[in-house]
Amino acid sequence: MQSEAEAKACCADLYQSDMAKLIMGDTLHPGGLGLTNKLGRLMGLRSGDVVADLASARGESAQALGRVFRCSVLGVEFGADAVRHAHDAAPESGRAHFVRGDAECLPLRTGAFDAVVCECSMSLFINKSQAVAETARLLKHGGRFGLSDVTIEPGSLPAELEGDLGQVLCMTSALTADGYAGLLEEGGFEVTDRLDASSEIIKILDEVEGKLAAFLAFQRMSGAAPGESQLERSPELVAKVRDMVTAGELGYWLFVGEKRGEKRG
Q: What is 4-198+248-259's CATH superfamily?
């Protein structure tokens, strides 16, 4: 039986895979850096803030937040390869730095942060409540937690998306929009903002359809027999995911929670 540590390592590796980059792009979440910056504005990030980015992957979002809002950002990522890449890619004079750590047991000082960001990753955490509790621990009173993630209605996930592909798409353990809001409330936050950004999934699907069409055309030209690749069924799966978004079964939402207590001046 796979241990919890092995499961987290496997998940981190999968999320850094070529398949994840093909589907989600370099930032590994819908909306790219544009949506990262929108989340930062909703949180009220400002110059001089000290911010933690949980599950920071290869560091694109952390660097963007530091650059746009002139804040200091510490990215925390479970995958060792991703941390090395983020560290190597970050300019020496930049505002973002990176360490390896587990979002459910953060190696960071209590009450040291003005804000925490977690993009398209809470859905992947094994113990979501513990991750939220750890986030609350890091924050000063009145600190802001910016969360963005895939939402899914119970029982709506097609069988074809219950494996690795569904995990890359953050679907297999995602909550409903109300579920995330409740998670924050139970973890000591007052939800001050929630924004439906589900249209960003449609944009990803449009891009994926184009990439798949080009790849399958090349595959056929190279002489591969139909059905040899699992990608042959991918257009059907893309259509199913699109239908789920249209039906409101699948979405992508942004949330901002304020740690209960004294507000920042």
A: Vaccinia Virus protein VP39 (3.40.50.150)
